[in-house]
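Exercise: predict the structure of this protein bound to adenosine-5'-diphosphate.
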Amino acid sequence: MSLRFRLTVWFTAILAVALVLFAFLVYALLYRELYTDVDASVQSKAHDAALSVRYEKGVLTAPTRIRVPESQFRAPTLYTEIRSIGGVAIWRSDTLQGSDLPLSSESLATARGGDPVLETVIQAGQSVRLYTAPILVNGNLVGYVQVGRNLADIDVALQQLRLWLLVSIAFALAAAGGGGWLLSQAALRPIDQVGNAARAIGLAQRLDRRLPTPKTADEISRLVTTFNEMLDRLEAAFIAQQRFVADASHELRTPLTTIQGNVEFLLREPAMPVGDRIEALGDVADEAARMARLVNGLLALARADAGRHLDRSMTELRPIVESCYHQALALARPTNISIELVVNRLEPGARVLADPDRLCELLTILLENAIKYNRQNGLVRLVATTEGRSHRVVVTDTGRGIAPEDLPHVFERFYRSPAARSEDGTGLGLAIARWIASEHNARIAVESVPDVGSTFTVTLPALQPAPLIAVS
Ligand code: ADP
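Solution:
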């Protein structure tokens, strides 16, 4: 069942309930009002008639004309009859045209007991409201007065009202149903359009397409805006993924081509001098190692993309920094770069919530770059400090620096500044470093001055230092 149909049905059903309740209320109120009027009029007429009779010497007589309003205006629907104590009619209004008003034995008995009776009777196919009351003179019952009121006009009026209410309710429901159907079509059309456009985008696999945003600031325009924003993110993710795959294949192709070339060369020239053979095999080993680094980097980033999180625990920071420093010393040994460690401004027992191996990997990436992109006889400083509620680990070098236009991109995957391409590298190091930093709720920032050097700063949130244990 379509939403449009359901909306219309609900709308019409609610309106139907409201209209029926309203009609019922109007009818009931009018019905009560009319009947109250009728009852009041027959009672007052009976009262007037009873006042007009005479009772003398045990004989009840009625004047030829009873002075009541009907005698002037001759309401044709009112009938009056005065009866003697024996129930014999002694006076009838002209409207009765000589016939009697009905008087049942029950009503007579009740009136005889002193109580008036108000009832609706059917007389000659007409419903008549009938009031029968005793006439008392000095507390003695001397006769009865009966007043009837023909209800035909009221019945007709009520019947017409019923008809009118029915017709108007039916008309209102038809109009509301039809109007609701058209309105809901107009209201739901934009949703249909959004659905069709979204389907078309899906079928054409065109993530660059956007839905036109309606100018109205309503739910539909919010839906379209949200949908377009989602497409923005999907497109960005899709492009990033495509670029990642393309870059990865490109980066892997270079070492593979070199390995293939060298192996083919070795196969072609079995009698190759030992020196050449060693050189070719050395190339193969270097490229294989580069590929291994690349694949490891790709694997780390793929795991990060898949939402893998690090296992962190309370760890003392200083041993991690010192261990990374020793690794860096080993890396720098073949070069003439010197490395300096400064940890005296690090709070004693400084602790962080960390995965020690991964945190060390992050610092090693920074230290490796600081060595790799340094100048001859350059210096690398590894400084750890505590400032307020955070610990900072800063790696500074005196190398070639990073050009301002490269600076915003160095953390991107596979990004290598043109100047760095001569150096061995994968372009994945800083992307991995940024992921590790984010897993530690840490910030990583870079400042660099070309030909002066670069500074990478990792800011980690501090934990309370471990309590000092006194050893006796
Ligand atoms: P890789 O070092 O393998 O190229 P990274 O992701 O570690 O990849 O670094 C990305 C780029 O950032 C490098 O290619 C280089 O251009 C630049 N870079 C990183 N660290 C430094 C540094 N300490 N000095 C100068 N340039 C740097």
